[in-house]
Amino acid sequence: MNKLLTLVTAAGMAALPFTTHAAAYQEGDVADGGSITGKVTFSGKDPGPKVFKISKNTDVCGTGNREIDFVRVTGGALNDVVVYLDKVKAGKPFPADLAGVELDQKGCEFKPFLGVMRNENKITAVNSDPVLHNIHTYEILGRARKTVFNISQPDPGTITKQIKFKRGVAMKVECDAHDFMHSFVFVARNPYLAVVGEDGTFTIDNVPPGKYTVKAWHGSLKEQKATVEVAANGSASVDFAFKGK
Which end of the chain has a smaller Cβ tally under 10 Å, C or N? Predict the structure, then answer.
């Protein structure tokens, strides 16, 4: 691990233009780091789970209907949200557990429903079922999406693919053989992120002093953003409020 010779402040980073040839994130020591905390809430009408009929491979997938709650709300807190700092070019090292991600297809369900991985690392798709699955991943680009890979897995086994995004920050994952299988993977360009807890709270620590754009990403709702300033050894707070129709 290389030490930073110069720790670029967030204000300086924000001024840098984005290009597809942007330098890789630089890991190093952080002097006088602070923290960002907050909560993500949801108000208004909760759309509730989407219901899919299980129409094939019922001996493995189960019978009846499959409910998938794409907008999961717990006591007014929105779950399955990743809060992250945008366009940070240097700072603390990536934690060891933020590397690749493994998606297990078991009982005709993707596990986990929300995964997190580091950009330019590998996603591992495991078929634990004795039936054909076809894992189809899409890079989410606003309201559009672009296929990343589309591979048939007719037998139990594992495939591995490297993910290298230049624009998007997340993937939607589906099974073309079973329309009731859905999952999301957030693809991180820096380690300054947090998956909110069941109560909607989050903490991002060891943040270099400076101004930041903080974004709250959810797989089915429009991304929100805010600006905060972190003082040396200080803390900043930012909340996000999503609303239903």
Answer: C
